[in-house]
Amino acid sequence: MVGGRTPLGSLLDLVPARVATSPAWCSAIDPVARVVLRGVRTRGTAGNDRGEWYGATAMVAVSAIEGEWRGTDLGRLAPVEPPCRFGFSSTPKRPSVTSVVTTIDRAVQPAT
Question: Considering only CA atoms, which of 29, 77, 37, 32 is closest in space to residue 55?
Answer without folding.
Answer: 29
